[in-house]
Amino acid sequence: MREEILGFLKELNPNADFAGSSNYVEEGLLDSLQVLELIDFLCDKCGVTIEPEDIDPDNFATIDAIMDFIGKKS
Amino acid sequence: MITTVLDYLDDISRRFPDKVAYEDTAVSFTFKALTERARKIGSEIARQLPPQSPVVVYMKKGAHNIPAFFGAAYAGCFYVPIDKDMPDERIKLIVDVLKPGAVVCDSTTKDLVNSNIPGIPVIYDDEADSFEIDEDRLCKIRSEVKTTDLLYVLFTSGSTGVPKGVTISHAAVIDFMEWICDKYNLSESTSLCNQAPFYFDASVPDLYIPLKTGASVYIPPKSYYTFPKKILGFIKEKGINTLIWVPSALCNVVNARAFEVCVPDTVRLVIFCGEVMPCRHLNVWKKYIPDALYVNMYGPTEATYACMYYDITRDFADDEVLPLGKACENSSIYLITDENKEAGPGEQGEICIAGICLSNGYFNNKEKSDAVFTQHPLNERWFERVYHTGDLAMRCDNGDIVFCGRKDFQIKKLGHRIELGEIENAICSLEQIKNACCIYDEESTNIVAVFSGDMDSDELSKCLTARLMPYMMPSVYVKMSAIPMNLNGKIDRPRIKKMYLEGELS
């Protein structure tokens, strides 16, 4: 799953260095539309339901944060 | 006499010295502190440069950019905002056109200045507190400036890839401020939440409304817009009552369903400009904040933020298109046909603008300026300048002007005149669609619909059959995970077209 999400991130923003980033949000690697795309992807692939409240920078800051987040949701 | 925006600033800092003018999460400037810092930076610029020189302000976005802008004005110079996140290549192109006299930078951009603008005199914003105010010099400069002198230059992307520097005078900004502040009763109790970057014309009201009225502007971190519940929480917490945003920022709030988390019911006025606002998204805003007035404005950077406005006082269906409305006070709009005549009722013409709001042309680019800033085609008796926008519109029976698309988005296929924007609007009005863009491949005469959302191409095609004339139907559909956007948050059409033509989208 982790690799699939990383692959999708790369597809969303091919110019960004996700591996070298300590915070995708603060470093501006994802814009608002890309975050929504990522959420759709997570809903489809992981079968989780993401509520508006969950669309929070803390849940999308790094791949670890994303993994934790979907772990909690599923 | 109000000659420059500094006359506004001097007056307002006498009336509201201790009121917040601009505030971000790290720093806050009262009007008094703003004026003092701007005069310090202005004195330092004036020590190094003669009046009327371009001064690049190259910093991380925040409240501290603003004293630097007005510092350039105190020095009789004009400012050119460049953002820390702007691509190096674009900065180099801008510098080539501009040949700036100095740059004001901060600790985040110091090294970037060395690599992107080597050899330029540098004024370091972090040292501004220690600059001395040179009262005599500022006074002398002030006595010599004219209202037609430049206040700023903003670079927009040119079709050839070389950015065009739109020059704007003090007079143009004053003209717009006098109208908008009066029309919408803006005052010292107005509070704004800045959204647009300062290198983008959509931020001009945020920058100048405080100077005219004593209003306060709050500048949230950019990431708040990425997670819209954060921005709504910020608006509520600060008690902000006025939003002047681009439509895509308003749409993001709806797409993230952020109103289900927070409804900032302090908002009373929402103005948008810069692109088409889809009614489907507007209607969600109206549902959650019904007491606010929503205003659709229209205007290119070349006419200082806006030259037309439409107060939304009736309900619009999701698939309706908002009118552009009518000309702002002290500006005129003419719809000019290809035969250089005024368009009749219901007839399309190019939107041409006249008034003090107009730019003084593109910086260092006479050829491009002459192509679009011309003698008024309907006036043969005296010199009157108009700006040709490249936008098409027509006048309805009730006098409202409605947008019909870009002149260069209008295509001819099988003898039909087709507006790509109309197809885009039909696609975007579908609930499952996130975003869409239509391009025309002249060679194959294919209309290509590029879209993102929860729908596949066949379903989309089926839905469109019910909404579009057969000759308007796209012949190619491309679903993308996200539609590429440019730096200003608008759909990047040239890039999408290039990707399509190079086979990257099929």
Report on this model:
The complex is a heterodimer of chains A (74) and B (506). By secondary structure, chain A is mainly alpha-helical. Chain A has a single domain, classed as Orthogonal Bundle (Non-ribosomal Peptide Synthetase Peptidyl Carrier Protein, Chain A). Helices cover 50% and strands 0% of the residues of chain A. Chain A contains three helices and no strands. Chain A has helices spanning 2-12, 32-46, 63-73. In chain A, helix 1 (2-12) runs antiparallel to helix 2. Chain B has 506 residues and is α/β, with parallel strands linked by helices. Chain B folds into three domains: 1-168, 3-Layer(aba) Sandwich (Rossmann fold); 220-413, ANL, N-terminal domain (Rossmann fold, 3-Layer(aba) Sandwich), CATH 3.40.50; 417-501, 2-Layer Sandwich (GMP Synthetase, Chain A, domain 3), CATH 3.30.300. Chain B has 16 helices and 25 strands. Chain B has a five-stranded mixed beta sheet with strand order 11-12-13-14-15. In chain B, a hairpin with a 3-residue loop joins strand 1 (20-24) and strand 2. In chain B, helix 2 (31-48) crosses helix 3 (65-74) and helix 7 crosses helix 8. Chain B is globular. Classes of the chains: A mainly alpha (74), B alpha/beta (506). Chains A and B meet through helix 1 and helix 2 of A and helix 9 and helix 10 of B.
Q: Indicate the structural class of chain B.
A: alpha/beta
Number of domains of chain A: 1
CATH topology tier name of chain A:
Non-ribosomal Peptide Synthetase Peptidyl Carrier Protein, Chain A
Could you say what the CATH topology of the largest domain in chain B is called?
Answer: Rossmann fold
By DSSP (H or I, 4+ residues per run), the number of helices of chain A equals 3
How many angstroms separate the termini of chain B?
A: 61 Å
Could you give me the name of the CATH homologous superfamily of the largest domain in chain B?
A: ANL, N-terminal domain
What's the rounded overall pLDDT mean of chain B? 93
Name the helicity range of chain B.
25-40%
Q: Indicate the CATH architecture of the largest domain in chain B.
A: 3-Layer(aba) Sandwich
